[in-house]
Design goal:
By secondary structure, this protein is α/β, with parallel strands linked by helices. The chain has 2 domains: 4-16 and 89-224, Rossmann fold, CATH 3.40.50.1000; 19-85. 44% of the residues lie in helices and 13% in strands. It has 9 helices and 8 strands. The protein has helices at 19-32, 48-58, 65-85, 94-102, 118-127, 146-161, 177-185, 200-204, 220-224; strands at residues 4-7, 14-15, 89-90, 109-113, 136-138, 170-174, 189-193, 210-212. Helix 8 (200-204) links the parallel strand 7 (189-193) and strand 8. Helix 1 (19-32) crosses helix 3 (65-85). It is globular, with a radius of gyration of 17 Å.
């Protein structure tokens, strides 16, 4: 039986009408007084830290600890501002699946496995009333590499449940090839959903355990193995 279900954020749980990308661009412009270059890089499935490192390289900014701190001190303010002004919404089937998972006789622990920094994930999910649905998680604050974030998420879930979780007791839900890869890194089963930037055909190439257009196509019982 599945004991831990880990969800990606952007494109899996919610869409923010590009607020994150726009906040990156505003932060680069306001903090470092340079064109951001955010339109030249691919954000889907990446970690915030790796994205900032790439933007620094594009703008010949030294990737020092101080410069990363300057960026992430400013970024949440722009993100919050743009989330309040922007559109977006919760992806189809998300609220129902979360409610149904929590209503199971033996509900799994629900967590986040995301490339967002923790505060970024919180701002995005609070905007749509989802933050309090999750009891654990791992973020870009924990590691720059998405696969290592998955390792941290598995460890935190194990600690909270007070058992050493096997990979087959974990499901990772995500919308990109990066989500499939990081799920495989910890031996988890993967539910891939095409509500983000990847098509069903693109995701199928990475052989997830489930492949659906949106989360209305699966039940809590199927995901949790009940």
């Amino acid at each position: 039986m599945v004991r831990l279900v880990l969800f990606d954020v952007d494109g899996t749980l919610i869409r923010t009408d590009g607020a994150g990308v726009k906040a990156f661009a505003r932060t680069m412009t306001s903090t470092f007084q340079c064109p951001s270059g955010a339109d030249k890089i691919k954000f889907a499935g990446r970690t915030d830290v790796s994205l900032v490192r790439e933007l620094f390289a594009l703008n010949q900014i030294e990737p020092t600890a101080g410069n990363f701190r300057r960026f992430f001190d400013c970024y949440p303010f722009w993100l919050d501002h743009l989330l309040e002004r922007g559109g977006g919404g919760v992806c189809a089937g998300v609220r129902e699946l979360l409610d149904d998972l929590r209503a199971l006789p033996q509900p799994p622990l629900l967590g986040l496995l995301t490339g967002n920094i923790r505060l970024g994930a919180e701002l995005k999910l609070r905007r749509f009333g989802l933050w309090d649905c999750f009891e654990t998680g791992a973020f870009a604050d924990d590691h720059e590499d998405r696969n290592q974030i998955a390792v941290v998420a598995k460890g935190r879930g194990s600690d909270q449940l007070k058992q050493d979780l096997r990979g087959d007791q974990i499901v990772v839900v995500g919308d990109t090839a990066h989500d499939v890869q990081c799920g495989r890194c910890i031996g988890a089963r993967v539910l891939a959903v095409s509500t983000g930037g990847s098509t069903l055909e693109q995701l199928r190439l990475h052989q997830p355990d489930w492949l659906v257009e949106d989360l209305r196509a699966v039940t809590a019982e199927e995901v949790a193995g009940s």
